[in-house]
UniProtKB/TrEMBL annotation:
Domain of life (superkingdom): Bacteria
Family stated for the protein in its record: Belongs to the SecA family.
Residues that bind ATP: 83, 101-105, 490
PANTHER family the UniProt entry points to: CHLOROPLAST PROTEIN-TRANSPORTING ATPASE, SECA INNER MEMBRANE COMPONENT OF SEC PROTEIN SECRETION SYSTEM
Protein name as it appears in the record: Protein translocase subunit SecA
A single Gene Ontology CC term: cell envelope Sec protein transport complex
Organism: Peredibacter starrii
Entry membrane topology: Peripheral membrane protein
Phylogenetic placement of the source organism: Bacteria, Pseudomonadati, Bdellovibrionota, Bacteriovoracia, Bacteriovoracales
GO molecular function: ATP binding; metal ion binding; protein-exporting ATPase activity
Domain (Helicase ATP-binding) ranges: 85-243
Length: 845
């Protein structure tokens, strides 16, 4: 009754779109009357309108009408009305469900052209390199004719070509390449090396495949967590040579240990390096700090135990061993080196993102596919994408027959082979869909035994796949393929094969998702063509075996049915539909679970990547460091200012002075008198002022460009190091978090809580490390650099002279050997070398 009163959702969607379509159609005569040059000039006219304040919605009817007319002239392809409807839907940031063969590739040209006019780029994402290259080449003719540039992103391209492709008005590429380029960009050290620009507008082709089927696996860029583990062993050897309170101080309450000025000099001497705080030595400094912590703060049989050559953490609350857990930030390796066990390198995540969160970066996202309606709820919940079902250009006349179920898999395959043989004899083309390579090979063997020529497809060769699928509609053609094979390529029928009944689709098993079954059926019956589809099942199929096949088999036995007799019953069909729905729900839960966890990281990732870009752009680096100084000063004040109220003199000034020296490189002595007089006893203000002044004086007299470069490099190196370590810590947290459910705790809530704590700790650790590194770094004047060069040149010359002397001595020794071996001469006779000396005092010596 409700549908009769208000219509279906599809009816309502079409009612909203048809007025726009009518306006586009009314403009067709206007643009048909234009010359080629006049039509091409419309692109610049549209751009000018957008510059003057018009919106893309204002120019949509004209822009779509121009693309339709250009398509007719350039490619002899005029957009159908249903393609116009699909194009409007895509422009509105929705998913356009269009059946196979309705021309999604041509449909996408409409919104891509319109949204590219803003000059911010428009992307089309597809499932493989072959389709990206094919579509960019074929549709590129249309865009180029209208004055827009086209690029394509495929595997193994260098950064220069990638950047050029992203700078094009319209860019085609695969989901993996787009997402990995985003991650790689945010690991680079120069903004000029970034290949992507802003994420403006994107159409995802085969949107269900990319945003649902592939959404269960996050994209990761991994690498060794700390590079060469041998450095841990090298650094570990020097720590016992340091003396407490002379070379380092330990604060057990704050669980920290810090090198003193003397300690820094001692470490530099032991490691034979110049400046420990030089940007080039940041990795070594990190190892020294962690090794110092391992030796001074972490005790065997208290914080950890050593069992079977492994360092196992002891839970500080329960006293139990935490098998499989590892400290992050290189601390675990430092403890391993201290205990003399194998130092294990870890493959850690350097960057990660899910497809869900990558595609949500776009200001406007849309998608198209032949099968999205079954996942409409998920698209709305995860991506806020509405699914609009576009009607077919011509009525669908494909004959979708009822499923048939056999007792055994062998009986099913025999029935499938029999139907293929019948179709093959009369010349009707057949496409056989399987859900595994194994099934494809079984059917192929059966057909080979019957002498039926056929093609077998898998997803390994996309170019070959497209070629075979394109020819699958020829007379007598038999093609066996996995259900996903051939997507994006039309199976074209000849007039003869249309008269023979069109393409016959045979499904050999129900997929766990109804959508995949619909994709297979959708290969037939395109553009009003004839066709048929039928699914053959057996009680031994996974889906049937799991859901009540024993009971059904019992009924078949009671009825006296043979293995090769099929059963057709609504109960079977309903059971399959329920099974598929249950599996779809389970898979949705997995994807939702992954997204819930990645959402926590996503907010952190966006903040870090934004800060990183600003650092590279030298936007506010001075102010950022000043903020860090303020926060470190505040944190130190909170740590050393007594909780009980008292006078400023009651503060632990020896500890405060040491902390200020470690954190800010302060040379002056801080006193309670100065704190009272200048800052009214506020320790945080006092520390903030002396810290800022100390760092300011450090860089006085240096070239501002040199200082700016130093700030940028220290900030970047520190952020990258701590972000990398943070990702490793988050990986370890995620690995064990689901065990919290045994303690009646929600793992997601626990993950969010602990992730927040880890993130906050990382943020302060970055601030502290940046301030310490800036405070202790040593810049050199031009005179000092030249003096070092002179010293290096002197040293080089001395080394060269020593080398030449050694070579001369070696030559002399060789000459002596030869003379001794070849000349008979007395010791007091003149030396044969002609020196005038006696032999005994020359070569005879």
């Amino acid at each position: 009754m409700m549908r009769k009163l208000f219509g279906t959702k599809q009816d309502r969607d079409m009612r909203a779109l048809k007025p726009i379509l009518a306006e586009i159609n009314s403009l067709e005569p206007k643009y048909q009357a234009m010359s080629d040059d006049e039509l091409k000039n419309q692109t610049q006219i549209f751009k000018d309108k957008l510059q003057k304040g018009s919106t893309v919605n204002d120019i949509l009817p004209d822009a779509f009408a121009v693309v339709r007319e250009a398509g007719r002239r350039v490619m002899n392809m005029r957009h159908f009305d249903v393609q116009m409807l699909g194009g409007i839907t895509l422009h509105q940031g929705k998913i356009s469900e269009m059946k196979t063969g309705e021309g999604k590739t041509l449909t996408a040209t409409l919104p891509l052209y319109l949204n590219a006019l803003a000059g911010k780029g428009a992307h089309l994402v597809t499932v493989n390199d072959y389709l990206a290259q094919r579509d960019s080449h074929e549709m590129g003719k249309l865009y180029n004719w209208l004055g827009l540039s086209v690029g394509v992103i495929i595997a193994n391209m260098d950064d220069e070509d990638r950047k050029a492709a992203y700078q094009a008005d319209i860019t085609y590429g695969t989901n993996n390449e787009f997402a990995f380029d985003y991650l790689r960009d945010n690991m680079k050290f120069d903004l000029n090396d970034y290949v992507q620009r802003e994420h403006h507008f994107c159409i995802v082709d085969e949107v269900d495949s990319i945003l649902i089927d592939e959404a269960r696996t996050p994209l990761l860029i991994s690498g060794p967590s700390e590079g060469d583990t041998r450095l841990y062993g090298v650094v570990d050897k020097i720590i016992p040579k340091l003396v407490k309170d002379t070379h380092y101080t330990v604060d057990e309450k704050a669980k920290s240990s810090v090198l003193t000025e003397e300690g820094i000099l001692k470490v530099q001497e032991l490691l034979q390096i110049g400046n420990l705080y030089d940007v080039r030595n940041i990795e070594t400094l990190h190892h020294v700090n962690q090794s110092l912590r391992a030796h001074t703060l972490f005790k065997n049989e208290v914080d950890y135990v050593v069992r079977d050559g492994k360092v196992i953490i002891v839970d500080e609350f329960t006293g139990r061993m935490k098998e499989g857990s590892r400290w992050s930030d290189g601390l675990h390796q430092a403890v391993e080196a201290k205990e003399g066990v194998e130092v294990k390198s870890e493959n850690q995540t350097l960057a990660s993102i899910t497809f869900q969160n990558y595609f949500r970066l776009y200001s406007k996202l849309s998608g198209m596919t032949g099968t999205a309606d079954t996942e409409a709820d998920e698209f709305m919940k995860i991506y806020n994408l509405e699914v609009v079902v576009i009607p077919t250009n011509l009525p669908m006349i494909r004959n979708d027959q009822a499923d048939v179920v056999y007792a055994t898999r062998q009986a099913k395959y025999e029935a499938v082979a029999k139907l293929i043989e019948e179709c093959h004899k009369k010349g009707q083309p057949v496409l056989v869909g399987t859900i595994s390579i194994e099934s494809s090979e079984l059917i192929s063997n059966v057909l080979s035994s019957k002498g039926i020529k056929h093609e077998v497809l898998n997803a390994k060769n996309h170019a070959r796949e497209a070629e075979i699928v394109a020819l699958a509609g020829q007379r007598g053609g038999v093609t066996i393929a996995t259900n996903m094979a051939g997507r994006g390529t039309d199976i074209k029928l000849t007039a003869e094969t249309k008269s023979l009944g069109g393409l016959y689709i045979i499904g050999t098993e129900r997929h766990e998702s109804r959508r995949i079954d619909n994709q297979l059926r959708g290969r037939s019956g395109r553009q009003g063509d004839p066709g048929a589809s039928k699914f053959f099942l057996s009680l031994e199929d996974d889906l049937m075996r799991i859901f009540g096949s024993d009971r059904i088999k019992g009924i078949m036995v009671k009825l006296g049915m043979k293995d090769d007799e099929p059963i057709e019953h609504s109960m079977i069909t309903n059971a399959i539909a329920k099974a598929q729905k249950k599996v779809e729900t389970h898979n949705f839960d997995i994807r939702k679970h992954l997204l819930d966890f990645d959402n926590v990281m996503n907010e952190q990732r966006k903040v870090i990547y934004k800060i990183r870009r600003d650092i590279l752009n030298d936007e506010g680096n001075n102010e950022l460091i000043q903020d860090f100084i303020d926060e470190v000063a505040f944190e130190l004040a909170a740590q050393y200012q007594p909780e009980k109220k008292g006078t400023v003199r009651d503060f632990p000034w020896d500890e405060i002075n040491q902390a200020a020296k470690n954190a800010f490189g302060v040379e002056q002595t801080l006193t309670p008198e100065e704190c009272s007089q200048k800052h009214k006893g506020e320790l945080a203000d006092y520390l903030r002022e002396v810290g800022a002044t100390s760092i300011q004086k450090k860089f006085e007299g240096f070239d501002p460009e040199q200082v700016k470069y130093t700030y940028r490099e220290v900030l970047l190196a520190t952020f990258d190091q701590f972000w990398k370590d943070h990702l490793l810590a988050m990986d370890h947290l995620k690995e064990g978090i689901n065990l919290r459910s045994y303690g009646q705790k929600d793992p997601l809530v626990e993950y969010k809580r602990e992730a927040f704590t880890i993130y906050e700790n990382m943020k302060f650790a970055i601030k502290r490390a940046v301030v310490e590194r800036i405070s202790h770094i040593k810049l050199m004047t031009q005179e000092e650099i030249e003096a070092i060069h002179r010293e290096q040149e002197k040293l080089l010359q001395a080394q060269l002279k020593a080398h030449q002397d050694a070579m001369a001595a070696e030559a002399m020794a060789e000459e002596k050997k030869i003379i001794r071996a070849t000349v008979k001469v007395g010791r007091n006779d003149p030396c044969p070398c002609g020196s005038g000396k006696k032999f005994k005092s020359c070569h005879g010596a």
